[in-house]
Amino acid sequence: MLQTNSVSTTVRPDGELEAGYAEEFLTFTLGDEEYAIDILKVQEIRGYDAVTKIANTPDFIKGVINLRGTIVPIIDLRIKFRLGRAEYNQFTVVIILNVSDRVVGVVVDSVSDVIMLAQDQIKEAPQFSGGTNTDHITGIGTVGDRMLILIDIERLMASRHMGLTGDGALQ
Amino acid sequence: MTIDMSQFYQVFFEEAAEHLASMESLLLALDLDNPEAEDLNAIFRAAHSIKGSSGTFGFSDMADVTHVLETMLDKIRKGEAAMTSDMLDASLVAGDVLKNLLAAHRGEEEADEVAAAKIRERLEKLCAAMEPGVVTSAAESKESGSASPQVSRFDVSFVPDGPVAQDQGQLMLLLGESDGIYGVELLEPGPDGAWRLRIDGNISAEKLSSLMEFVARSGTVAVCPADQALKVESAYGFFADEESVSDGQSNGESNSPSEASDQSWGLFDAAAFGSGKSPVVRVADENEAYGFFDSIVVEPSYSNELKATADLPRETLNAGQSGFGVKPAGSTESSVGMAKVAPIVAAEAKKISQERPGPKPAAKAAAGDNSIRVSVDKVDQMINLVGELVITQAMLQQSASTMDPVIYERLLQGLSQLERNTRDLQESVMSIRMLPISVVFTRFPRVVRDLSQKLGKKVELKTLGEGTELDKGLIERITDPLTHLVRNSLDHGIEMPEKRKAAGKSETGTITLRASHQSGNIVIEVSDDGAGLNRDKILGKARERGLSVSDSMTDSEVWQLIFEPGFSTADQVTEVSGRGVGMDVVKKNIAAMGGKVEIESVFGVGTRMTVRLPLTLAILDGMSIAVGDETYVIPLNYIVESLQPSPGQIRTMAGSESVIQVRGEYLPVIPLHKLFGCNNAVHDYGIGIMIVVESDGSKAALFVDGLLGQHQVVIKSLEANFRRVQGISGATIMGDGKVALIIDVGGTLAMARGLRAAA
Question: Looking at domain A23-125+133-158, does it have CATH number 3.30.2350.10?
Fold first, then answer.
C-alpha cells in the first residue's frame, strides 16, 4: 500500500540509490537538526493559522484547519520529536503533505531549501540500539558540511505513533 | 482482468441494472387484461438488451436466463399468446434472479445457481405451453384462457392451384386425412374465384394455412377462426377507413386475419406510402399478413432506439396509406426531426402530435438522450469548491462592510452581484445531486404486490409527489426504512378483505405514499386506511414489557412506544413481521439522517407515518455554541430546549456529579469544557447556558458558555484526512473561515456516561 503510492523508486529498501539517479528533497529544520523529505509528497507550504482543537488527542496533534474547504489535521513535529521550542508566530511554517491519499499538515521550525541529492551523497542510516525508533529514517544525506536526515514521511505519518488513523497504522 | 475491461464491466453493470429496473416497473404496471403493445415491446427490449450485453461480456449465466425470458416475451409481444399472471410472476422472478446474478458478478452476493436453473426451467415450460397455441388473435387467446389447442372452426379461403384445383373431392379427401382436422365443409366460392372452406379441427391457424399452401396458389391462403369472421370484417374496415375503428385492440400487431381476400389489400401496396425513402413493408398478399404486422413491431432499427413507433392510437390514422405512414412518422417525432420521411408523412406526424399529446415513452426516450453520466466524486468536488466560494464571498462581504459606500460604490455593487451569483451557483450545483423520490417509490409496487399476495390482502398503492427531489445520499438511505414502513402498513394496518367489508370499508385497502417539500424539509408520508393503532393494546404490551406508561399519556406519546426495541403488538410472529425488530431500527436510521418519524392514527380509520428529513445530508441545521476558546455546532434536531439555570435547579449527586431539575425531570449535567478539555471556559453554572438534548430516548443537559446562533452548516468529514473522534460527528467551516466541530450528541452522552463510570 505504502509502496504503491510512493514515487521514490530511487531509494531501494536497503537505502541505496540506483545508479544515475538524483532526487529532489525539501529540507526543513527541527531545533538543530535538518531533515529532508521527498518533494513529491509536499503539496504546499503555508503559515501557521488558528487551528481548531480536537479533544482527547495527543498534544502534538494541534487540531484541524480549513484548507480551501478540506479539513486538514495539523501535527507539530517539534512536539512529536521533542526538538526545538513549540512557538507559534508569523514565522511558523506548516508543510502540507499529500501522503497515502490523505492531506496532513506538519509544523516545523523553518523550511530551508529544495536540493538535489545524488546517489553518492546518501549514506545508510546508522543503527541505534534500543529505544529510538528509526524505521522512518531512510538515510543520511551530505551537502557540504550539512547533514540531512532523510525520512520517509509517508511511513512516518502512517505509523501508529502518529495517531492520525483510526486504530494504528494505515493498512 | 485488465483495468480497462473492468471499466466496461462497470458500464454494463449500471446499464443492466437500469434495464432490470425498468423491466420490473413495466411488468408491474402492465394491465394483464389489456396490455399496451408498447409496454410489451419495452419489456422485451429491456430483456433483449440485457441478453445482448451480458453475452458480449461473457456472463453466460445471465444471458441464458434472459434468453428464455426473451423468447417468452417475444411470443407475447407478437401476440402469439397473451400474458398470463403466471408468466408475469415468472418474469418478475426472472428479474430477481438476474439481479442476483448481476450482484454476484459485481462481487456483492453469492450467485444462486439453483434459482437460476429453476426459473429457466419454469420459463421454458411456459414457452413450451404456448407453442401450439398460436392463436390468431390476442383477444381469442384471452377468451380461451390457455394456449393449448382445442377444437376450433376456421374459415379458409384460397385460390386453388395444382391438381386439386380441378377436383374438389380430392381436396376434401386430402384434408380429411390430415392430422387434427375433423370436418371440412365447402362454402360458396369467394368473389375472385377463391374457394372457401369451413374446417373444424384441433389445429392451429398457422398449421392449417401451411397445409393449405400445398394446394393453393402461393400467397392466396387466408385462414381465420369462424367466430371471428364478423370482427375481421370490421377490422378490415379499419384499414380501409377510419370510421369503423371499433376493434378494442390497442396495438399495431393484431394479426387480424382475413377472410375477405379482396381488393382492400391494395391499400397496403407500397405505392401508398407516398415515400420511397420510408421503410417499405410490402404486403403482396394475404398470406404475408402475419409477417407484415410482425415486421412493424420487430423492425429493430426502430424498436431499439425509439419507444414510440407503430403504436400510435388508431383514431389518428386516416385512410390506409397513413396506416403505414404513421410508423415512420412516429419515429420522426421521437428522433427529433431526423426526417427521412416524405413531406406527406411528416405532415401526418404533425397532425398526430396535435391530435394527441405524443406518446409518453417517446418523451422519455428524448429526455434520456439529454443526460450524461457523471461520477458522484466529480459532483462532490464541485459542491466543495462552490462551498469554498461561498465562504470566500462571505469573507469579502464582511471586510467590505466597513467601507464607505460613497467612495467604494462600484466595488460594493460588484460584491452584491457576486453574492447573488454565488448563491445561484450554489443552488444549481446542489441540485445536481438531487434525484426525484420516484427512484425509491418505484420499488414499492413490487413490495406491495408480493406481500399482499402472500398475506391474501387486497391493497392498492398510491404514490403522490414522485417528483419531489432529495439528495442522492438520502435516497440511498431512506429506501430501507420506507420499505419497512410500507410493509408494516400492509401487515398490521390493512385488514383482511372480509374484515374490511364487515367494517363497511371497501375490500381493497389503500396505502398512500406522498412526498413533498415543507419549509426546507422533505416530508414523506406512508398512510393506510387500515385498522389504525390500538391504544389499549399498545399500553397493555408496554406494561407487560415493564415500560413506564400511564393511561394519561397523550396519543402521540403512546404511538411513540411502537418504536421501542422489541416492541410488537402482533398476535403471532409471521414471516413478514411481528418480531418487534424494525420499528426501532427505522427510527434510528431516520434519526441518523437527521430526520424524525411522527405517527398519527385513528383506531379503525387508518394510520399515517410521517418522515421528516433535511433536504440533503451535506447540510445540517445547527446551533453554534461557545465553550471557552472553541466553537461547536450541535445539530438542531437533538436540542429540546436551552435555559439559563437558576441556582436552585442544580443539585449535586454522589458528591461530584450534578443534576438539573427541568420540569420535574432530573437530568445529568455534562459540562462540555470538561469533556472536550477546553481552555478559558465558564465554570460557574450561574453564568453559562444549559442545553437540553435528547438522543436515543435519553436526555441530558450540556453546559456551555453561550449560544452563538443558528446556522445551516455544510458538513465536512473529519475522517477523510484524520480519523474518527469520539463525541464528534464531523466538522464545518464557519463564516469566518474557521473550522467548528459538529457534536455527535449520542456519542457525547455515551462519553459522559463512560467518564462517570470510570470516576
Answer: no
